[in-house]
Amino acid sequence: MISVKEAKNIILNSTQDFGVEEIPFINSVGRILKEEIVADRDFPPFNRVSMDGIAIDFKEFSSRLRSNRQLTFKVEGIQAAGSEQLSLQNSENCIEVMTGAVLPNNADTVIRYEDVTIKNGIATINIDAINEKQNVHNKGKDGKVGDVLISESKIISAAEIGVLATVGKSIVKVAKQPKVMIVSTGDELVGVDEIPLEHQIRRSNVFTLVSLLERLHISSETAHITDDKPILKEKIKGFLKEYDVLLFSGAVSKGKYDFLPEVFDELGVEKLFHKVAQRPGKPFFYGKTADCNIFGFPGNPISTFVNCLAYFYPWYFKSVGVEPKEETAILGEDVSFKPNLEYFLQVRLESKFGHLVAFPIKGNGSGDLASLVKTDAFIQLPKKEEILFKKGEVFNIIRYR
Fold it and tell me: Cα(95)–Cα(60) distance, rounded to whole angstroms?
């Protein structure tokens, strides 16, 4: 039995490169960018008006202010957003301008409509506290042509979509997603839409895993195989050739019908470990072939859930070149835990005085699927001889809300 740290290191040293594909930018939210996005022009590409109002020559305004002349300007025209640039013909005049329009030539300052009265084609400025170049978004202020606007290996969000559109990047390179099969085993499991007999339960773990992968924008397929070793072996033999990743729920412990470790061995899967010093999820199996990674999660619901978050997620992120940030929380009350194992404890999170505080939730063991609904994360209490973890201590958390 190895430690959680050893298990994670083994997994992170067995990552896969799924390659790169090109997809329409509008479909790329949640995907991992695999190219630098550079500015194809200055941003903004012209001196941009940032307020509806009038554009003036600031020197003319300052001159009138010093000599106590009237702050009235004849309106020469209107500069609309999207129209070609006008020029101020006379510095004693002004041009009405709209937000997003190019700033007219010979004008350098915009005064918003709220500070101006326009009557009979004459604009009167009603304030004298004006700054030169106010309400103008200068050309190239946000970025120059050739500047890197989005770095490679960024997770694309709505913010990045806007930048991709702005630079005309209609097709974008992203990391390919792994081809994943999620397999449940066991004669006690029936379909979601079936009425189980007294000795049966509905399949749930497989759909939990499907949803956890969808959070990563990974599509997956599912299969259910009964506790029949020849059938298991035949099915898995095909899956190993067809998929990049196999996720199993169940049949990896010591029960008489837990055939998976034997089947993996007979099919030439290299076992990298089986059993981790943790609770829940101790009987976790991990192995690989030349082309496929195999995650064998224990069948109890909480075990499957936490192992996917604690191991598959980091493996996936490293495979596609993303470095996730670790998150910590303050333990909100004392916890006593006797077995000398690493403990993934379910917690409810609260923000108190700017700090994240984790309050333990008592469930009924690793089979208590419903307890996940009441919690937000797992707090990771390290393996140690002492049995008491004290309120106020800080530990890593794995958040799932």
Answer: 14
